[in-house]
Amino acid sequence: MLGDVRKYNVKGTLVINKHTAIVEGDADWYDEATSIADEKNTFGQLTLSGCELAKAITVTWKLRSMAIDAFIPYIKNELGERVGIALGKAVAQGKGKPGESDIFKPEPLGIETVLNAELNTPQVITHNAAASTPDPVDYEKITTLVSKLHSSYLAGAAFYATNATIWTILANIVDENGRPIFIPDATSGGVGRMFGFIVKADAGITAESVLFGNAEKGYVFNTNEPMSLATEEHVKARTVDYAAYTIVDGGVLDTKAFALLKKSS
Description:
Layout: E1 6-8, E2 14-21, E3 42-48, E4 51-60, H1 61-66, H2 71-93, H3 111-117, E5 124-127, H4 139-147, E6 158-161, H5 163-168, E7 182-184, E8 192-194, E9 197-201, E10 210-213, H6 215-218, E11 219-234, E12 239-252, E13 258-263
Parallel strand pairs: 1-11, 5-13, 6-9
Antiparallel strand pairs: 2-3, 4-12, 6-10, 7-8, 8-9, 10-13, 11-12
């Protein structure tokens, strides 16, 4: 999903105007004697500051000296991958900025976090095949999930789930005639399609959950400081630190651009 969201590279704080409630969003028809009605929609702002993300690996001088030439590039590549995984997870599950009683550090606010926090969770539906009254993921669950999206976000929408969720749950859903609704297709940017929408494997999504939405229109990600790699030598300890560092932030522009199917607690 990280690859699909809208991205900016703005230094400092980025402020974007957004809808906080869509009451009547369309234009209307008038005659010459009628004044134009006032705007009934309400607007707010999405403010993105900066959240520090870092990962370090310490290597002894002896290990570095005796290692093959590919060892150090391997470490640097590993750092980049670890940072990429953290960024992908943050877009889906990021906690956001801590409150006074919170002990976690600032991080981007994830889509699942926002949807689960909404009053009455209008964009969330649940499943639980292990319940005393089974409520599995079936054809109706997926159609309900699709119906949650505002029609203006359907073009460009996609399904996101972990690889295990795709192949153990989504790939086994059938319609009333016993035909699978998941069609394997590796040529469209994902691993398959359902109802014409691309299905993408995303390790950042919660296990046994399916997120459906338009990431490009519904989520904004800003990079204050691109990822860099630094090294620090420790002479007495005879070690060297390799560290990856970046400053980013992200947030949801409109919850109507997303819908979440998750396992009930």
